From TrEMBL:
Keywords: Signal. It comes from the Bacteria. Residues 1-20 form the signal peptide. This is DUF5666 domain-containing protein.
Amino acid sequence: MKITHTAALILALCAAPAFAAAPLQNQASVRPVEGKIIGKIRGDAGILGVQGDVLEFTHGVVRINGTPVATVPKVCEIKYIVDGTRRTFYVNGKQRALPEIPPPPAVMHIGGLT
């Protein structure tokens, strides 16, 4: 059986997605550990709430309560630990300084703000 160049090209293009790399699996978690609350994001994007603070990571920028706090590698592990009033922030296992963080945004409930 003779396959033309056009048919071979079409076959190759249709088969290519099957061999493509698997997409990146982002992970986000919040868990209590020994009286602390630990929030963790792995991958290239994520959002989570930790003790009222909103932690967002996208396009290599970490924001807490809407305020940019760090530029980080596009793909990394972000860890945010709340221990009472103390907050610590890690990128790929290394602690980073946190600037002054504004209070978390107001939460909307049906019937108005609380």
